[in-house]
């Protein structure tokens, strides 16, 4: 089977690029002795990818209970469910742990911590620390931090932070500075809790850009990163990976040609690509995705999907589009702005390795 045989739209994963991205992150983490990588599978959502990213059933991060179950059934036991837990979900986590998994949850709420401590199941929790993103977490110097730790008591597993605000940076130096601020913040929080008599075995931080460019990691036990595996147009501009190392694309077919307007219509719209505009504020805006040829090579004029309707993607270009070579049914590929959201629209990867031959089909776990 080759790409020409596939129904469109569908998701294509280049195995060689995936492996390069994994190796690059592993090398970045290996700069710091004793630091371990806990890959975040929220982007890949695939056991086959996990076998490469977290071999030998190493520790992983997940973002939904559906992922936790899926990876637990595949053999990955050491998990952090890195979205704030609600009391209603504790029974499901406890059931997974009773079956032999070690799913740890996170919280930044005192009442939630009390619910975790009171639950009869075996559940450990990390306290989420806000190191500048201003999403979830308590400040490192917050008065509620030791209260949450005390409420958890022996169920306290450590601390967790996420430097999502690193996406506002634009250079390796920016990423290194944000990474150091995150490190200082979570280490300060850990030192406060240890001084109060709490064990803090896990000090977990990360984002793909900061994990790649951090200059210090002392006081940190593990790094979480996820989108680096697949890469996307936004991460390329954050210097997480080379611009050419984006492992996923959406295969699409030409369904309309408008030479007078120099536009094409593809059968990949918002539901196949997402409507994420992460590159809108980046140095280069790629609309709803960069359009390349069937072999993944750039096209003259650097066309992009400029408009995304539910099932239609409208392609614009700065140069005349090659209509003579793009009849109705011709195949193109769209490189995503944000791999996490684009991939979430699909239930499988069609795997290639630098050619048009499809060498495997890997499933994905979507839903919650």
TrEMBL record:
InterPro entries, per database record: Ala_racemase_N (IPR001608), D-amino_acid_metab_enzyme (IPR051466), D-ser_dehydrat-like_dom (IPR026956), D-ser_dehydrat-like_sf (IPR042208), PLP-binding_barrel (IPR029066)
UniProt KW Repeat keyword: no
Membrane-traversing stretches: none
Molecular functions per Gene Ontology: alanine racemase activity
Pfam families assigned: Ala_racemase_N, D-ser_dehydrat
Signal peptide: none
Residues annotated as domain D-serine dehydratase-like: 247-353
Alphabetized UniProt keyword annotations: Isomerase, Lyase
EC number of the protein: 5.1.1.1
Record-stated family: Belongs to the DSD1 family.
Listed name of the protein: Alanine racemase
Organism: Paracraurococcus lichenis
Taxonomic path: Bacteria, Pseudomonadati, Pseudomonadota, Alphaproteobacteria, Acetobacterales
């Amino acid at each position: 089977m080759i790409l020409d045989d596939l129904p469109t739209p569908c998701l294509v994963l280049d195995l060689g690029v995936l492996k390069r991205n994994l190796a690059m992150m592993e090398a970045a983490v290996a700069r710091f002795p004793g630091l371990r990588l806990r890959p975040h599978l929220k982007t890949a959502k695939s056991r086959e990818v996990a076998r490469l990213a977290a071999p030998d059933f190493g520790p992983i991060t997940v973002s939904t209970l559906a992922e936790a179950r899926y990876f637990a059934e595949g053999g990955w036991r050491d998990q952090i469910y890195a979205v704030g837990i609600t009391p209603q979900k504790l029974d499901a986590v406890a059931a997974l742990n009773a079956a032999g998994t070690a799913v740890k949850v996170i919280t930044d709420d005192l009442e939630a911590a009390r619910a975790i401590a009171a639950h009869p199941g075996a559940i450990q929790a990390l306290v989420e620390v806000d190191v500048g993103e201003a999403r979830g977490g308590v400040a490192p110097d917050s008065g509620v931090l030791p209260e949450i730790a005390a409420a958890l008591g022996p169920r306290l597993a450590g601390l967790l932070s996420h430097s999502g605000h690193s996406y506002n940076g634009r250079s390796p130096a920016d990423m290194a500075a944000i990474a150091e601020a995150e490190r200082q913040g979570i280490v300060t929080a850990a030192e406060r809790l240890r001084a109060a008599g709490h064990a803090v075995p896990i000090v977990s931080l990360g984002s793909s850009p900061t994990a790649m460019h951090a200059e210090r990691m002392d006081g940190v036990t593990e790094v979480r990163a996820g989108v680096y595996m697949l890469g996307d147009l936004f991460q390329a501009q954050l210097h997480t990976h080379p611009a050419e190392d984006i492992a996923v694309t959406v295969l699409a077919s030409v369904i309309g040609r408008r030479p007078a307007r120099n536009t094409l219509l593809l059968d990949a719209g918002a539901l196949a690509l997402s409507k994420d505009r992460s590159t809108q504020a980046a140095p280069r805006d790629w609309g709803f995705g960069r359009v390349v040829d069937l072999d993944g090579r750039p096209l003259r004029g650097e066309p992009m999907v400029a408009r995304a309707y539910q099932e239609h993607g409208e392609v614009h270009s700065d140069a005349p589009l090659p209509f003579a070579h793009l009849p109705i049914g011709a195949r193109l590929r769209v490189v995503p702005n944000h791999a996490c959201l684009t991939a979430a629209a699909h239930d499988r990867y069609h795997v290639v390795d630098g050619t048009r031959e499809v060498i495997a089909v890997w499933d994905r776990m979507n839903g919650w």
